[in-house]
Amino acid sequence: AVSLADLASDCGQMMRLAAADRAITLTIRPMTAPVRLWADERALRQMVLNLVANAVKFTPQGGEVRLAAGLDGDGAPFLAVEDTGPGLGEAELPLDLAARHRESTLDAGTGRGAGLGLTIVHGLAGLHGAQLHLATRTGGGTRATITFPPARRLPAADTGARAGLTSAGV
After folding, report:
1. What is the pLDDT of residues 31-42, one digit of tens each?
2. What span, in angstroms and rounded, lies between the C-alpha atoms of 87 and 57?
3. Domains of the chain, residue spans
4. What is the tens place of the pLDDT at every residue in 121-156?
5. pTM value?
């Protein structure tokens, strides 16, 4: 089981130095209620770090990156990263996130990466039954949201019973 609040906090702390080096404010929005997911913690951490790293990379000096986690209006757990960067152009949305369409080079003309980070996020999200949604705001900025199926949410008291873990015999 993975606590979304703990995951967001840990990833935010890991990325603070990179953000500070570029004078970018990195904010972690507090959750109103604890949310725990039945998920692979390493995979979730990789997804969040990839999204935050992209946001920091493409946000201009003095900009802002926000990390949020919680439940949407339908009760589905989500992780979201929002930035004040230039946003994705219309030509880039929707992105083809299939790995076979990505190259491992940096476009020297635009400074944009190859998009492998987003491809990895997309693939790991899919393994969890989750969806990756990318949106550009008018005036710039991108919001990347990973939305998990509500069935992945664990009750607050569930500490591992779904994995067959119990305190009996310990």
Report:
1. 878 899 999 999
2. 12
3. 2-155
4. 999 999 999 999 999 887 789 999 999 999 999 987
5. 0.81
**pLDDT of residue 158 exceeding 60:** no
Residue 131 to residue 94: CA distance in whole angstroms: 13
Contact 150, 70 (CB under 8 A): no
Q: What does the alpha-carbon distance between residue 124 and residue 2 come to, in Å, rounded to a whole number?
A: 15
Cα–Cα dist 105/17, whole Å = 25
131-136 vs 2-3, strand pairing mode: unpaired
115: left (phi over 0), alpha (psi -120 to 50) or beta: left
**Coil/strand/helix, residue 100:** helix
- Strand bridging mode 25-28 / 64-71: parallel
- Mention the CATH class of domain 2-155: alpha beta
pLDDT tens by residue, 70-85: 999 999 999 999 999 9
